[in-house]
Amino acid sequence: METLIIILTGVLVSVATYLFLSRNVIRIILGTSVLTHAAHLLIMTMGGLKTGGVPVLGEETTTFTDALPQALILTSIVISFAVTGFLLVLAYRLYQESRSDNLSELRGIVDE
């Protein structure tokens, strides 16, 4: 199961890289979102699934679960949502000002 998740993470990183290399601003923003999802899967896979009790003192359990991977993923989800929202607003303002979302046109490069 873990190898399948690692392969899926690799596929998501490949898709994100393909979207980053696009000239369209919206595709680049989608690439950042896909890359953060790949990072979430990687953190979840590295943390592993452990069964045990909650890490509270006074409980009579011998094994505890580690809450750090879930906390990191939750924090990363919030940050990626904020960054995606900011980039979408930035892309909207960019389109309002220049009437284009092509990065080559925005840089002033003329195609031959």
Can you tell me about this structure?
By secondary structure, the protein is mostly helical. Helix content is 70%, strand content 0%. It has helices spanning 2-20, 25-47, 68-98, 103-107. Helix 1 (2-20) runs antiparallel to helix 2 (25-47) and helix 2 (25-47) runs antiparallel to helix 3 (68-98). It is elongated. The model has no long low-confidence stretch (mean pLDDT 85).
Any chance you could write out the topology, listing elements then pairs?
Blueprint: H1 2-20, H2 25-47, H3 68-98, H4 103-107
Helix pairs in contact: 1-2, 2-3
Task: Provide key terms for this protein.
mainly alpha, 112 residues
> Based on helices, strands and strand pairing, what is the structural class?
mainly alpha
Radius of gyration: 20 Å
The amount of helix comes to 55-70%
Which strand-content bin applies to the residues? Answer: under 5%
Main sheet properties = none
Q: How many β-strand runs?
A: 0
What is the count of helical runs? 4
Q: pLDDT under 50 segments (min length 5)?
A: none
Amino-to-carboxy terminus distance? 50 Å
Element-by-element helix/strand order? HHHH
Overall pLDDT: 85
Gross morphology is: elongated
Q: Could you give a short description of this structure?
A:
This protein has four helices and no strands.
